Amino acid sequence: QLSSIARAKKPRWRILGTKGAILDEGNGKFQLNTEIEGVVVDAEVAYKEGKWDTYYQNIAAHLLRGEPLAVTPESARRVIAIMEAAEKSAKSGKTEAVAYP
To answer: Which stretches of the chain are DSSP H helices?
Structure first.
């Protein structure tokens, strides 16, 4: 769940695994906790520079003027399949296959 009205906020992203974790509060950096070649890593990592607004501008241009989409539904289906497999795995406690490998 994500809420910006709660007094105590939760991380925007909380990704936990057996070999590492990522906590991201959406403030331009994220916390990485892992182990690399036997060395424990607890680091703050800055976001890569990007132009996130161009994605939404492209969608508007597609809807208003018929311009081609930069990200098509077909190209996004693997990402969605990975997210769905991760959710299913979290519920089942088992490794789940990705629908579009």
So the answer is: 53-65, 73-92
